[in-house]
Amino acid sequence: MDKRKVDVAVIGAGTAGMVAYQRARKATDRIVLIEGKQYGTTCARVGCMPSKLLIAAAEVAHQVRGADGFGVLPGEVRVDGTRVMARVRKERDRFVAPVVRSMESLPEAHRLLGHARFVDSHRLVVGDHTEVTADRIIIATGSRPNIPGILKEAKDRLVVNDDVFEWADLPSSVAVFGPGVIGAELGQALARLGVRVRLFGVSGGLAGIQDEKVRDCALRTFSEEFAVSAKAETRRIERARDGVRITWAEGGMEYLDTFDYLLAATGRRPNIDHLDIQNAGLELDDRGMPLFDPYTLRCGESHIFMAGDVNNDRPLLHEAADEGRIAGDNAASWPDVRAGQRKTPLAVVFTDPQIAAVGLNIHQVEERCHTCFAVGEVSFEDQGRSKVIGKNRGLLRVYGEHGSGLFLGAQMFGPAAEHVAHLLAWCVQKRMTVGEMLEMPFYHPVIEEGVRTALKDLSNKLRMGQKPGEGCMDCGPGV
Ligand SMILES: Cc1cc2nc3c(=O)[nH]c(=O)nc-3n(C[C@H](O)[C@H](O)[C@H](O)COP(=O)(O)OP(=O)(O)OC[C@H]3O[C@@H](n4cnc5c(N)ncnc54)[C@H](O)[C@@H]3O)c2cc1C
Ligand SMILES: NC(=O)c1ccc[n+]([C@@H]2O[C@H](COP(=O)([O-])OP(=O)(O)OC[C@H]3O[C@@H](n4cnc5c(N)ncnc54)[C@H](O)[C@@H]3O)[C@@H](O)[C@H]2O)c1
């Protein structure tokens, strides 16, 4: 077995691991980045990018189908599943290629392929070929789909997101289990591409939406488009001759249906369990996860750091990159460990309408402010710009603190949420008050005018600023 001694070992060449490597490398050349499977990252290979490519095709189909409402008659819409999937894979490969190239451009001494396991707190065995002794270690091993036992009864018809992007053609029906972020995005996209979809959940949740009013609005909207069983009790899953037969109970009735595939989108589990983490000498919680500080990414008082999806704190791409940076810097400067800057929480779900969350969620607001907060809202049903473009569905709810007027956060289901959410996240991060936000310019006619309406409602409920008069004399029509 080869033996290597390094200052810093990074386990996992995903987004967090690659950024951590880049940062730590500034301080030392005695560094190794270990990858257990293949280069290319979850985001580019099986995550953010291929999912958005599939969604983009679905959006085109949906737009064309809706053209009639504008008096434009494009004719019958046909979806060629093989071409849709070919484009997804071709463009996906274009995103993966530069990531692989940048990995391959690293000095050979800095790269190691093989699954890493802890032998003790400083020693790792990689594959069965190399033993690495490291002064500091960064765990950046990401996560993988979590599949509840009952779903495994679908046998060879059980798929996860990774498999979907390898499909050569679209199937005719899919049962999507898990109405979380992945289930909502892929479920709606497949439905819009002509696949018969039913989305199964257990607790009535949807895409991580915390604000009940927004969640109800989103559930109602999606249920009009495809079958959603948000509170279903799955009784039986069987591999039938023609696919997967599912028996479930809902609203006091029992149902049975057969689908080509069962897509498990039932959450993700951190890749910590195959690391022999018990040998690392870290304090573990009751689920076997090392305790860590989200600001320094350091595990206890140790020389070991955890960044990205593996720590299960903020499993999003931009957070993985930020955490890689913090962990890399701290591994480089250890034992002088510093708190890194954590940004305002921001999450976007690429359904249509999109879903977004910014800053504190409604439960965190209640916990922090008790009764000292107010909620403003706007429905997009009558919002001018949204009506013009035929996207007038959804609800935005904004939260502010009594007394200070501080803008705390927002939850949105509605048009252009990816853009509105950035605007609002920047305001939270800049610690702006609702009054200050209302002093900003708002063009006409734009979706942001709906944001202004929600903020005015909030300002009024906070009893701050001028008492609003009837209507809005200074606004254009349909705000
Ligand atoms: C379908 C889907 C869609 C998504 N869409 C979005 C989106 O639109 N926006 C967004 O912000 N986020 C999205 N995400 C989340 C985003 O992809 C992740 O947050 C991000 O990729 C996590 O990066 P990471 O570096 O932590 O993990 P990864 O990129 O998964 O990297 C971990 C690496 O560690 C390796 N590894 C694991 N164990 C070992 C070991 N023992 N030894 C050596 N190597 C090991 C793995 O092979 C892997 O290469 C999506 C995720 C999915 C699944
Ligand atoms: N747009 C984005 O930013 C984006 C897109 C996709 C994924 N992601 C990231 O990936 C993470 C994982 O996504 P996910 O959708 O797998 O997880 P999730 O935690 O968002 O959702 C999992 C869902 O599965 C449900 N569930 C669990 N067991 C079930 C069962 N037996 N039957 C039916 N439903 C069941 C849960 O109640 C939950 O609603 C997300 O939290 C997010 O961080 C982000």
UniProtKB/TrEMBL annotation:
<feature type="domain" description="Pyridine nucleotide-disulphide oxidoreductase dimerisation">
    <location>
        <begin position="347"/>
        <end position="454"/>
    </location>
</feature>
<feature type="domain" description="FAD/NAD(P)-binding">
    <location>
        <begin position="7"/>
        <end position="324"/>
    </location>
</feature>
<dbReference type="InterPro" id="IPR016156">
    <property type="entry name" value="FAD/NAD-linked_Rdtase_dimer_sf"/>
</dbReference>
<protein>
    <submittedName>
        <fullName>Dihydrolipoyl dehydrogenase</fullName>
        <ecNumber>1.8.1.4</ecNumber>
    </submittedName>
</protein>
<keyword id="KW-0560">Oxidoreductase</keyword>
<keyword id="KW-0274">FAD</keyword>
<dbReference type="InterPro" id="IPR023753">
    <property type="entry name" value="FAD/NAD-binding_dom"/>
</dbReference>
<dbReference type="GO" id="GO:0004148">
    <property type="term" value="F:dihydrolipoyl dehydrogenase (NADH) activity"/>
</dbReference>
<keyword id="KW-0285">Flavoprotein</keyword>
<dbReference type="Pfam" id="PF07992">
    <property type="entry name" value="Pyr_redox_2"/>
</dbReference>
<dbReference type="InterPro" id="IPR036324">
    <property type="entry name" value="Mn/Fe_SOD_N_sf"/>
</dbReference>
<comment type="similarity">
    <text>Belongs to the class-I pyridine nucleotide-disulfide oxidoreductase family.</text>
</comment>
<dbReference type="Pfam" id="PF02852">
    <property type="entry name" value="Pyr_redox_dim"/>
</dbReference>
<dbReference type="InterPro" id="IPR004099">
    <property type="entry name" value="Pyr_nucl-diS_OxRdtase_dimer"/>
</dbReference>
<dbReference type="InterPro" id="IPR036188">
    <property type="entry name" value="FAD/NAD-bd_sf"/>
</dbReference>
<dbReference type="InterPro" id="IPR001100">
    <property type="entry name" value="Pyr_nuc-diS_OxRdtase"/>
</dbReference>
